[in-house]
Amino acid sequence: MRLENGTVKAEFLLLGFSDHPELQSLLLAVFFSIYSVTLMGNLGMILLITTSSHLHTPMYFFIGMLSFIDSCYSSVIAPKLLVDLISAEKTISYNGCAAQLYFFCSLVDTESFLLAAMAYDSLVEAICLLTVLLSYVCIIAAILRTGSAEARRKGFSTCASHLIVVTIYHGTLIFIYLRPSTDHSLDIDKVTSVFYTLIIPMLNPIIYSLRNKDVKNAFRKMIHQKLVS
Predict the structure, then answer these.
(1) What is the pLDDT of residue 36?
(2) Which residue has the higher pLDDT, 84 or 139?
(3) Which residue has the higher pLDDT, 125 or 14?
(4) CA dihedral defined by 32, 38, 41, 43, rounded to 10 degrees?
(5) Distances in whole angstroms, Cα of residue 103 to Cα of each of 76, 108, 151, 218
């Protein structure tokens, strides 16, 4: 807290990476690059899904929503982080901190529910079942029970991207909250937080685009149309 114009102003001091001043410029360049790629990747995915009629399916609707959420919750953290790296006064107001925490937690919870919905949709699309349990174990078990090797390959191909995203997303959460207190390290917490808030939103559109023939074909078609026009 500090006194300003006769009133007490509550603020939090953001230490962040201030204990490594020699790395501030490098970190600024790295985080700015990551944030830029995150926005371009996710907004590009939204544009591609919106403009490509054959991507107007439930699964790509969910992927578009995932890209939108990733753009938002990365934007809740990254701009303030970048400002603090170049600012001498690394503080955040109480109201600002509360708002940041509210929006971040809300978006993370929304993404968790969205990933669960995508799991259900992936299972219905890949295995053609009418009713299933909303469980990632059931997805794998149902694929393994499929008769032919070709059907299993197609099922895993359909679900692989989603399972990779879920593993990275929830794996990071498990590491953060279930790590033994004896192994606690502030530096590891910082790196994990950066991975969770900046890296994962950047990886999601890359994973879904590189492993998805429909997305790659839609991208080539859009580029071809732009060049022709």
Answers:
(1) 92
(2) 84
(3) 14
(4) -100
(5) 7, 9, 41, 33
